[in-house]
Amino acid sequence: MNAVQGKESWLGRSIELEVGPVAHGGHCVSSVDGRVVFVRHTLPGEQVVAQITEDNGGAFCRADAVTVLRAAPGRVEPPCPFSGPGLCGGCDWQHVDPSVQRELKAAVVAEQLQRLAGLERRVVVEALPGGPLDWRSRVRVVAGKDGRAGFRAHRSHRVIVVDGCQIAVPNALDGVLDRRWRPGSEVEVTRDGAGRGHLRELTMVRGREKNRQLQGGIAIEEAAGRDWRLDAHGFWQVHPAAATAFAAVVADWSQVPRGGTAWDLYAGVGLFAAVLAEQAGPEGTVIAVESGHRAVKDGKAALADLPQVHWRDGRVEQVLRDIRPTPDVVVLDPPRKGAGKPVVESIVAGAPDRVIYVACDPAALARDLATFAGHGYHLAELRAFDAFPMTHHVECIALVTKI
Fold this sequence. Notes:
The chain has helices at 98-117, 242-254, 271-280, 293-302, 316-319, 341-349, 362-373; strands at 3-4, 7-8, 14-18, 22-23, 27-32, 35-40, 47-55, 60-70, 125-127, 138-143, 149-152, 159-161, 186-191, 197-205, 208-215, 218-223, 226-231, 261-265, 285-290, 309-313, 329-332, 354-359, 377-386, 395-402. It is an alpha+beta fold. It has 3 domains: 3-75, CATH 2.40.50.140; 125-130 and 221-402, Vaccinia Virus protein VP39 (Rossmann fold, 3-Layer(aba) Sandwich); 138-218. Strands 9-23-24-22-21-18-19-20 form an 8-stranded mixed β-sheet, sandwiched between helices. A hairpin with a 5-residue loop joins strand 10 and strand 11 (149-152). Helix 2 packs parallel to helix 3. The chain starts with a strand and ends with a strand. Residues 1-5 have low confidence and may be disordered.
């Protein structure tokens, strides 16, 4: 018997269980002998045999459903042969009908809002054009010990060698998976809006990451009625339809008064700043804040025709200490961890009428909405998009206004 922190380890054990509700992170929840079991490759309501894959001796452990004894409606045959227990960890819901995937994601968003922000909200996750496959325009593969490329298994450094990826845009991995790379190196692949391929190899040399551009380097994208030229490996929405869809929501909700002031925080290359600048007009002011030096450079070039956009190169929490003038509208698109209390409090100190929060993590969004609520703001509108089909990720856009 293995002992972990004084308890019997269940690692490797097979357990028959009934699967409970979906949880944030691409798994469902069950309970066995008083312990919570997070189970992947299953659906709520199923009866499965699950194999414990991780047990640190605490109140919960992790498992994979290896045998389905009673299937739930919505289960389908995964389109990818590399999806399943012990295989590629990139997709969470290959075994689920796409419409049911969106229902699961909606349930997760609603649960996070209720639990972390005290908000009761019916959530609908909207599909983007193009279907559940062939959408991922940015892919990172890793080379195993033999130099062959693939993806890591879930919560593991083990490389699963593949000969294709069902969710990658067509031809994105041509010439990548059929060659050998330096073991341990990672290869970043981008297929831009013009259909051009970009390839960069990342390696660790004496503890420092080195990158080598092998093909391309400058991506060409089209969104919000504008053409963009940017670092092919910098931030841009991964789904080809996402940037235009999100910009349209921002345009609909922002309502910047003519001659008004708007902030675009975590601005990237200025996608939302362009929308805000059109509304504010030449006499208005849009302050775009971004910490990525290359993104700021690309953004200045892309929006050179909009002199009302003023760039601030630095971390949002630092730049907000001295931004003037105060805003009518704020748009923020923070990283997965969210904006956090100091940034939210700096925003509300400017007393904007409207805040539009673009979030790739519903838990982070909910925590920040709770902070907004403590300062007299409430959630007025919410839209959610299936910008990452087959995975557990979901993009939310929230409109926050003064009570």
